[in-house]
């Protein structure tokens, strides 16, 4: 991606995300692994898999102030291999941070977090996120919780 190219972030349907999720996250996994729970199970914010969901209770947030109501979790974040390393993922992640900061119910001081694969932890840390708690396994894949608190 050249520096003069504009990256546009749009809302798309969940079904439109499934091919990328399959290719990047679970190439050999069952379809259930690429699907997000129905909106009736969680309060879905937008179709890029954002949820108003507090950090798990057993984790102690390393932030100056933490209000579980002001949290946004993103899930199933994936960038196809040919497009990795061009800044697309970073732009989408920045969009998520901005969305949380500007949302009237979240706003400044809000926390954005996710369960990141351990193999991608450094990518998130380079973007200002911090590790929260210890790693854990989902099946045979190791994960770590990462989060960031928006400026107040």
Key terms:
single chain, 152 residues, alpha+beta, six-stranded mixed β-sheet, 3 helices, 6 strands, globular, disordered N terminus
Topology summary:
Elements: H1 14-24, E1 44-46, E2 50-51, E3 71-74, H2 88-102, E4 111-117, H3 121-126, E5 130-138, E6 141-149
| Helix share bin | 10-25%
* Topology pattern, helix = H, strand = E: HEEEHEHEE
Oligomer: single chain
Q: Roughly how many Å apart are the termini?
A: 32 Å
Give the helix tally.
3
- Average pLDDT taken over every residue: 79
Structure classification: alpha+beta
How much of the polypeptide forms β-strand, as a percent range?
15-25%
* Overall number of strands: 6
Profile the largest sheet.
Answer: 6 strands, mixed
| Order of neighbouring strands in the sheet with most strands | 1-2-3-4-6-5
Q: Radius of gyration from the CA trace?
A: 15 Å
**Shape assignment:** globular
Unreliable sequence segments: 1-5, 40-48
């Amino acid at each position: 991606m050249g520096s003069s190219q504009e990256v546009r972030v749009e809302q798309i349907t969940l079904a439109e995300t499934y091919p990328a999720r399959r290719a990047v996250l679970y190439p050999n996994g069952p379809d259930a692994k690429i699907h997000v729970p129905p909106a009736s199970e969680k309060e879905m914010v937008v179709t890029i898999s954002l949820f108003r969901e507090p950090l798990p209770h057993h984790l102690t947030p390393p932030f100056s102030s933490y209000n579980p109501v002001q949290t946004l979790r993103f899930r199933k974040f994936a960038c196809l291999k040919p497009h990795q390393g061009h800044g697309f993922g970073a732009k989408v992640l920045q969009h998520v941070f901005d969305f949380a900061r500007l949302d009237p119910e979240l706003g400044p001081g809000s926390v954005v977090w996710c369960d990141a694969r351990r193999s991608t932890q450094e990518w998130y840390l380079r973007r200002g996120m911090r590790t929260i708690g210890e790693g854990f396994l989902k099946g045979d894949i190791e994960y770590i919780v990462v989060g960031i608190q928006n400026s107040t």
